[in-house]
Amino acid sequence: MRSYDNIPRPHAILYYSQRATKGGMLIAEATMVSETGPIPGVWTKEQVGAWKPIVDAVHAKCGILFCQIWHAGRISNYSYQPNGQSPISSKDEQLTFKVQKTGVDDYEYPAPRCLRIEEIPKIVNEFRLSNAIEAGIAIQKIFCRHIFVHYPAK
């Protein structure tokens, strides 16, 4: 879902309420636990405030909103990292595939750096401090697949 400054926008209220049904469960897009990517997050009070009307709109139709909290890891970009450093991963291998970002330009992922052992508690804490429950999102999944932070065995 498009957002600016990692804050869900009002159009998300309409988007999710249109899809909500009695007893239905909606799965929200991946939701950031820290500012490592350009999508809606749930680590600040302002973000929580923006999620609440979305959750309320789904609940008004007797639906449930399910949230996938995640860290962008290696698929992030330098511009979202503290001090412009490389994104983190369990390996320093750059992803070799490209994606079309605009339909015209190919986007090449930057080379990540290895996550340092002393950084692990910080990332764990970011997930722990997720404010999804405070926003009214009662069901959460830790979204940690697809080569974001970890690297699958070959």
Automatic annotation (TrEMBL):
SUPFAM superfamilies tied to this protein: FMN-linked oxidoreductases
Metal-binding recorded as keyword: no
Superkingdom assignment: Eukaryota
Keyword check for NADP: yes
UniProt keywords, alphabetically: Flavoprotein, FMN, NADP
InterPro entries: Aldolase_TIM, OxRdtase_FMN_N, Oye-like
GO molecular-function terms, A-Z: FMN binding; oxidoreductase activity
Cofactor(s) this protein cannot do without: FMN
Family: Belongs to the NADH:flavin oxidoreductase/NADH oxidase family.
Protein name, per record: NADH:flavin oxidoreductase/NADH oxidase N-terminal domain-containing protein
Organism this protein belongs to: Coffea canephora (Robusta coffee)
Species lineage: Eukaryota, Viridiplantae, Streptophyta, Embryophyta, Tracheophyta
